[in-house]
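User: Teach me something about this protein's shape.
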Amino acid sequence: MAAQLESSGELQLPVLRRTAAHLSELLGPSTEVRRILDIGSGPGVMTCVLAETFADAETVAVDGTPGLLDRTLARAERLGLGGRVTVRHAELPDGLDGGDGLGTADLIWSSKAVHHLGDQEGALKALAGLLRPGGVLAVAEGGLPMRFLPREIGIGRPGLQARLDAAQEHWFEIMRAELPGSTDVVEDWPAMLGRAGLTRCGGFTYLLDLPAPLDGTARAFLHAQLTRLREVASDLLDAEDLETLDALLDPEAQQGILRRPDAFLLSATTVFTGVRAAAGERSAR
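Assistant: First, the predicted structure itself:
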């Protein structure tokens, strides 16, 4: 999935750049950002955005897949960031206990990684413990399901997208239950960040809005997304919806996602943040 992850990140570049700019404002001019950790960095798209935004910092991509870290280094080199982007191989959550020597940071970013860890609240506490005083922890773990088709698409039953959302929610529930050390917690992320010892906990949301007709890059991304969904949720959809999904995936069909004129891409990403109290400042606990 490396290529799909990178293309997904590139589609999100406008949102990622606005997010990095907002984090810079949150840190403020009085905080010297010398080191950044990108936890669960994947192919390093956001790693490089952070390196571009915080030009005086070392930005460290942390991931458990060596191939994705190789992509990060290659991407940084292409963008002229090779001297300021480094990588660290670490399996999560074990890598958060200090044994891998991740070190401290002024900004820690993690996107869609914490929900893959059984004890989400424990992971947040471990990440908060890596922050320097005044530093910010930012986790992208919210938002809304991606929209890309109208309710009536001319094939199958209307409302396919809603049923795909339900199938993904069911798959997500199963995935979470099967994680080692899986722990139920109310996913009130600002409250969880507060219990991790952080202050000024809150969140913000940015919208990616690509109207129809989409270009080839966005269409290829949607085709890859639907292919992945077909693989993981085939047991959760009925025969008619599977037939519709196969029609959408047909590269030669006019009604397929690669050709139809009504396909669009709309997604909302929510980022939750907390600040480690500086000396003399009370935490949110």
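Now, about its shape. The radius of gyration is 20 Å. The chain is about 40% helix and 25% strand. If you'd like, I can walk through any region in more detail.
User: That's plenty for now, thanks!
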